[in-house]
Amino acid sequence: MKELLTDFAEGVRALSPARFPYGRFALALLIGGAGGWLFVQAQLPLPWMLGSMVVCTAAALLRWPVAAPPVIRPPMTMVIGVMLGAGFKPDVVTQLPNWLPTILGLMLFMIACAVTCVAYFRTVGGFDPVTAFFAGMPGGLIEMVTVGEEKGGDARIIALIHSARILLVVMTLPFIVHWIGGVPLGGNRVAGPSLLETPLSAELILLACGIAGIVLGHWLRLPAKFLLGPMLVSAAVHVSGLSDSVPPFDIVNAAQLILGITIGCRFVGTPPRSILRVLALSVGSTVILLSLTLIFAWLVAKISVHGHVPLILAYSPGGLAEMSLIALALHTEVAFVAAHHIIRVFLVMITAGPLSGLIIGKRKDQATD
């Protein structure tokens, strides 16, 4: 509890005029919102986070006066954690026994992706071990940036690699699915309830999940406590049937907008040549990931009752929301696809931090012997 109060005090001090760049953050918020709106109009994936991140990154590279204070990030990360946990419904748990072959296949797929991509970033990219490890994980952008930075990795590179992964996978996969399944994709984004439509009781439950999750994460000393803690508490509440509510879409969009701005503003002072190099490397890693997706989907389809298209959508390391929407457009096993992505994110979150300590720490120890 003392450390929590210390964190809070540091956040309050960060709000002082001497340390909080009001004008620079206002500019970042303005252009980040414009970037998110443009991505929405272009129907690109994760528009509010990727759109704000892209334009703020460009502004940082152009040396515009943009900045994002660290104090604004934890509450937005909490919202994302609650949202991820809300995806664990009671019916998902009851169907898990029937999905055992595909879940085992997913675990093997994740291991193959992690080993291949980490080796790729170490050998081809020349990244340091920590940065290569978290950049190569088949998990979420926010999760790996948060944990990777805590472990001493380069958050800028990790953020850009995972942002490019999400963008490239989600923009490429529909064409692959159309080619394999022969079904045209369409339909608009399905939004959840707005803040005004959400009952106050549901909002209070979600807020309680977030706050209790932060306390739990601090008590258990979880990595990325502002993300993993709220996700665990929210998942427990939703699996038990105590609540079926999800965070309002406008709050989630605002959280994605702020997180995108904070990530984009990390690139202040980064040479453009370095950014372009990382983007080129991410194209190679995306090719690796999609190739492994097709291979594992084809193999697992032979030992399960699920077809190639649902398995491709379930295994593809893109966004949970975007892959679920593609499944909805195809009228194919939306719960199956969503559950596998939730499991993927969950497994990456709970294993990436400890494994990095064991693997990277062990290698360092061997190097000093």
Structure commentary:
The protein has 369 residues and is mainly α. It has one domain. 73% of the residues lie in helices and 0% in strands. It has helices spanning 2-14, 22-41, 47-61, 73-85, 90-95, 100-123, 129-135, 141-150, 155-181, 200-219, 225-239, 249-264, 272-301, 308-315, 320-329, 334-368. Helix 2 (22-41) packs across helix 12. It is globular and about 55 Å long. Residues 11-20, 185-190 and 363-369 have low confidence and may be disordered.
Helix-strand sequence: HHHHHHHHHHHHHHHH
| Tally of distinct domains | 1
Class from secondary-structure proportions: mainly alpha
Q: What count of helical segments does DSSP give? A: 16
Q: What share of the residues does DSSP label as strand, in percent?
A: under 5%
Distance between the ends:
39 Å
Helix fraction bin: over 70%
Low-confidence stretches: 11-20, 185-190, 363-369
Task: Please tag this protein with its features.
mainly alpha; 369 residues
Short description:
The chain has 369 residues and is mainly α. It contains 16 helices and no strands.
Any chance you could write out the topology, listing elements then pairs?
Layout: H1 2-14, H2 22-41, H3 47-61, H4 73-85, H5 90-95, H6 100-123, H7 129-135, H8 141-150, H9 155-181, H10 200-219, H11 225-239, H12 249-264, H13 272-301, H14 308-315, H15 320-329, H16 334-368
Helix pairs in contact: 2-3, 2-12, 3-12, 4-10, 4-11, 4-12, 6-7, 6-13, 7-8, 7-9, 8-9, 8-16, 9-13, 9-14, 10-11, 13-14, 14-16, 15-16
